Amino acid sequence: GQSLEQPSEVTAVEGAIVQINCTYQTSGFYGLSWYQQHDGGAPTFLSYNALDGLEETGRFSSFLSRSDSYGYLLLQELQMKDSASYFCAVRDEGRDDKIIFGKGTRLHILP
Amino acid sequence: DTAVSQTPKYLVTQMGNDKSIKCEQNLGHDTMYWYKQDSKKFLKIMFSYNNKELIINETVPNRFSPKSPDKAHLNLHINSLELGDSAVYFCASSQDQGQGYTDTQYFGPGTRLTVL
Asked: Which of A70, A80, B42, B75 is surrounded by the most beta carbons within 10 Å?
């Protein structure tokens, strides 16, 4: 069946760099998305990778390797406001374009 | 201007009641969704509507029924509420594939449903 795996929690220090990994298993694949969700808030879109490589948007970058069914979200110059949950998501082309979210990675940032 | 809005934000009700959650998007998107996020933060799609047609119907109980009067609105009606229905329900919308497609989902603020 289809699934996404990402770590449940990651802890990093303010100002540092952190990488959140995501591996996926789908019967078809369009691309990998990342969303951020603060406590009590709604998920907000961060990035989308359809092709292999690194996409950079400010302090956040996202990487995809289609051959490895793997991607990651890289957060640089961490700020306390980056404390949130981060979800990877795919649209499974082989399953009626069903959208699947990972279980989320809770990022804790220490001062 | 709010892109995706939901009402109510909080909903507390007794078991067995029937309730509705409303969603509206002013982005001109073709597809709208309902998601359920449980206490463990697991986000799971329930329904998807494209141009008023149901295109995904996850294995949710038939007590849940989506209604789309037009492509800007997707309401969720829940019959005979159960304790396990307590969760945060998010509405979302997205644009169909096209040039520059990024598969971005725009989420509403969520409705926290508590069933007593």
From this structure: B75
